[in-house]
Amino acid sequence: MMKWILTGMVVLSVLTAIFSGNMDEVSTQAISAGTSAVEMSLSLLGAMCLWSGLMRVADKAGLTQKLSRLLSPVTCRLFRGLHRDSPAMKAITMNITANMLGLGNAATPLGMEAMRQLEKEQGTSQYASNHMVTFLVLNTASIQLLPTTVATLRAAAGSAAPMDILPCVLISSFVSVSSGLLSAALLRHCFPSNNDRKDASKRVRKKIPAKKEAA
Amino acid sequence: MTSFVVPCIIAFILLYGLIKKVDVFDTFIEGAKEGLQTTAQILPALVAILTAIAMFRASGALDAFTAALSPVSDALYFPKECLPLALMRPVSGSGALALYRDIIAQNGPDSFAGRVASVLQGSTETTFYTIAVYYSVTKVKNTRHTLPSSLTADFVGYLMSALTVRLFFGT
Lengths: 215, 171
What we know:
heterodimer, A: mainly alpha, 0% strand, B: mainly alpha
């Protein structure tokens, strides 16, 4: 996907520059943009280290586990049918907590573990289970509590109060995740799962002997 | 009010760690090294994408592109400067980061477009990448309603970023 976007943008830029006569500017930018990528990384570097370090401390002090215990009433409701102490549920809550704290490096392996456990729960199948979809929606929407990367870049760009967007971010995230979960709940009936298929085939099989009896 | 959040969180985490008998300093250094690696890992992608974006903007193609899409953004009360970011966000994390920085550099971080871009960047995720990575550890071929539901969340997130910034800061 990215190879097409990258090539497409560069080719379009060259073509547009031919017609608009901006080739000088395009050339200057092409040469100097790499420097600004390095500058951007440098301006992010300090905050990345600070938050990774702090979150490691929080993790080691047991804050992650504490938070995931607080979350368990919510996750039990979202993943009905999964036992509270099942390995799948444990991996799911830990993954959600890591995401909330912005521990990306910890969240991904936990998420993969959760997916493996969810697959065990439903038995290997070509079709995603409803729980898998719910879990993915929680991970593709951002539930990070502190937008540290954004605040750092805003500070570097000279913002007066880099964190002033915090309430907006929290409200947007909440509404966005909720609507994702709602649409997952509504759409699950439009996309037949493996279980629906199994049920349907069982029903057909049951009907045939019943007819024979009647005859 | 929001300026209290960060200092208090830092102090709380360190104190909590100390109480739980964690070697706060050494653990911090260990974690910070990971931050260093993450930043180093995204640098090559940033060079590629920032170069493409800089060329795209300098040629005038970016202006033409956002102008062409502005009827859509106007109808949704969404700032047209943030449209490229909204399109890039689900596809590439480093690409979105590069575009985001470009938007706040061009419009200012405290402008309407700058704030909407910040909220959008902070309240959505790299949808396609996450779906691909997570399903790769299972045998699932048919992801059913995963993509439609995730994209619904993204789309609502975009609308909400413009709406909340309008409510809290005005235009």
